[in-house]
Design a protein that fits this description.
By secondary structure, the protein is an alpha+beta fold. It has helices spanning about 1-10, 15-50, 100, 175-180, 245-255, 285-290, 315-325, and strands at about 60-65, 80-85, 140-145, 160-170, 185-200, 205, 235-240, 260-265, 275-280, 295-300, 305-310. It has 4 domains: about 1-50; about 60-120, Type Iii Antifreeze Protein Isoform Hplc 12 (Alpha-Beta Complex), CATH 3.90.1210.10; about 135-215 and about 230-280, no CATH class; about 295-363, no CATH class. Strand 10 and strand 11 (about 305-310) form a beta hairpin.
């Protein structure tokens, strides 16, 4: 007991308690230091991630080195290249790599210093020598059109069109005998497709330069202060970019009928397969004539149509047979005029209605 009391006295002495408290404090401090160090590393990583600058690719665009006015010619002395973030460039911005193709063009509107030049800021190039813009192996051929055929004067160079030929089909022998109406012979055929419009009237365009898209440029007649302000935009002809064999086909087609031009969508290059459509295909069946319109009876003179019956030959034969059975098999009385002779055909069952006979041009 004396030993235990001495040990307890030592443990409860102020020095022992101070030492125990010091050990506990050191442990808590070590844990706090470890926690704060980990937290600091985590915060540093988060700050580094949030402050990291994203690398955006650059593209070189054409900009003027001074404020420019409309009509300024694009050249290396007034225009320079400037790197710009790719996500800040408009789709129609003139790139530095395309500048050689655009040299010599004029501005349609003012451009401030350092601002990228866009295709809509340029005037469409004027073509003085048409032969200079024809690709190798192609020809230019002009066809006459009207307001309806020019898509209400909205047709422009570099558009693509399909050409339909409206002509008259030749009459067959059967149609000549039936007296077929000439309007029923009108027909529309897909003559040529996916043809490039080189010019509308005298407005030509260089379609052989793929680097520039003239459809994005300002037309000279629509630019304030342009050289051709007030130009008459109506036209009565279009010039197509064709191959020699296509030119020959167009020449023959012009003698066969009239052309109707149909505009294609800008990105529509699909080939078409259409059969020729005749006017008779749009008429009701009763108005077409021919074998499916009934049975014609010709009596008396040559080619005089007396009556038409909407019955098949087999039905008419059945009706004749039923009429003879109703008379008890007696021979028919001699007609005053020769009756119409019907060809022998198979007799369908269930037909009992008699057929009236035609005599001497009367009923």
């Amino acid at each position: 007991m004396a030993i235990n009391s001495k040990l307890a006295a030592r443990l409860t002495s102020p020095l022992a308690l101070l030492l125990f408290a010091t050990l506990i404090a050191a442990g808590v401090a070590a844990l706090a230091h470890h926690y704060l160090k980990k937290r600091e590393e985590t915060m540093r990583a988060e700050l580094a991630a949030s402050s990291r600058v994203k690398v955006t690719p650059k593209v070189h665009v054409v900009v003027p080195n001074a404020d420019t006015e409309p009509g300024t010619v694009l050249n290396g002395a007034r225009f320079v290249s400037r790197p710009v973030d790719d996500d800040l460039v408009y789709p129609d911005t003139l790139l530095a790599k395309d500048f050689p193709s655009a040299q010599g063009l004029r501005l349609a509107r003012p451009v401030l210093r350092g601002r990228p030049v866009r295709m809509s800021d340029l005037q469409q190039p004027e073509v003085d020598d048409v032969a200079a813009v024809l690709p190798h192996g192609t020809r230019a051929m002009t066809i006459d059109i009207d307001n309806l055929n020019s898509i209400a004067q909205t047709l422009r160079p570099n558009h693509r069109v399909d050409i339909f030929l409206i002509s008259r089909a030749p009459k067959s022998q059967h149609e000549r005998q039936q007296g077929q109406d000439d309007k029923a012979l009108e027909q529309a055929s897909l003559f040529m497709q996916d043809m490039v419009v080189l010019a509308t009237g005298r407005e030509f365009q260089d379609v052989s330069n793929p680097a520039l898209d003239p459809s994005r440029m300002a037309r000279a007649g629509e630019v304030e202060g342009g050289a051709d302000t007030g130009r008459e935009r109506s036209f009565d002809s279009v010039t197509l970019l064709v191959k020699p064999q296509e030119a020959a086909k167009l020449m023959v087609g012009q003698r066969m009928g009239t052309f109707r031009v149909v505009l294609r969508g800008r990105n529509d290059r699909d080939a078409l397969a259409l059969r020729t459509l005749r006017a008779r295909d749009l008429m009701p069946a009763a108005a077409r004539g021919g074998r499916d319109a009934g049975i014609e009876f010709i009596v008396g003179g040559r080619g005089n149509l007396v009556a038409r019956m909407d019955l098949l030959p087999s039905q008419i034969q059945a009706l004749q047979a039923a009429g003879e059975q109703g008379r008890g098999g007696l021979p028919a009385p001699a007609p005053e005029a020769p009756a119409v002779q019907l060809p022998p055909v198979p007799v369908p069952a269930g037909v009992t209605e008699p057929v009236p006979s035609l005599r001497g041009g009367g009923f």
